[in-house]
Amino acid sequence: MKCPVCKKEWPTSMQVARHILGTGDKPHREWVDGQGLSFFDLLVEQALSPGNKSYQILSEVIEKVQAEIR
Ligand SMILES: [Zn+2]
Known about the structure:
- It is a single chain.
- This protein is mostly helical.
- The protein has one domain (13-68).
- It is 61% helix and 0% strand.
- The protein contains 4 helices and no strands.
- The longest helix has 13 residues, at 53-65.
- It starts with 12 loop residues before the first helix and ends in a 5-residue tail after the last helix.
- The structure holds zinc ion (ZN).
């Protein structure tokens, strides 16, 4: 699975999701917001709620866009 922003690769989309939320620089934030999500809301959700809901939401989007990453 590749990061759609910086093209780094991880074995699972969940790890890419963690990378994107963990990196949080402008290009990664803008990509998330561009997917109709809110980077800020996902970050808050992940910080305040138990479980991996934000990572799961993000990992689904990451899987969908894999074919578009060049
Ligand atoms: Zn990245």
